[in-house]
Amino acid sequence: IQGKCFISGIPLLVLFDSGATHSFLSCSCVEKLKLYVSSLNKYLVVETPTSGFVLTSNMCLNCPVEISGRTFLIDLICLPLSQIDVILGMD
Questions:
Q1: Antiparallel, parallel or unpaired: β 10-16 and 2-7
Q2: Cα→Cα distances 39→3, 35, 36, 77, Å
Q3: Is the pLDDT of residue 20 over 80?
Q4: How far apart are CA 53 and CA 55, in angstroms?
Q5: pTM of the model
Q6: pLDDT digit string (tens) for 44-82?
């Protein structure tokens, strides 16, 4: 399901993916929104439909994501996404 969410008051394109085990944020949004990035102690290997396998260790912890007027604190893994800003999984 595709929709809209807000981070720091900025509208972003979100994909609600019931098959995703984690939630993700595009690297370009991280830079644009000037979010704090934490580094994990290990690398995660994530398979994406457009980029194949991607290695990442960057994450935005407790990121306030607003959906339909409600704010949720979500850990977002940083990925080089294209055509979408946020993927919200079932974590």
A1: antiparallel
A2: 28, 13, 10, 10
A3: yes
A4: 7
A5: 0.89
A6: 898 876 667 888 999 999 999 999 999 999 999 999 888
Cβ-proximal residues to 54 (8 Å cutoff; 6+ apart), any chain:
45, 46, 47, 48, 79, 80
User: What is each CA distance from 10 to 27, 30, 50, 58, 72, in whole angstroms?
Assistant: 15, 12, 25, 21, 15
Could you identify the residue written with the tokens 């055509």? 83
For residues 14 and 7, give the distance between their C-alpha atoms in angstroms, rounded to a whole number.
11
SS3 content of the chain, % helix, strand, coil (to 5): 10, 60, 30
CA dist., res. 64 & res. 71, Å (int): 6
Q: Which two tokens stand for residue 26?
A: 């595009």
Tokens of 1: 């399901």
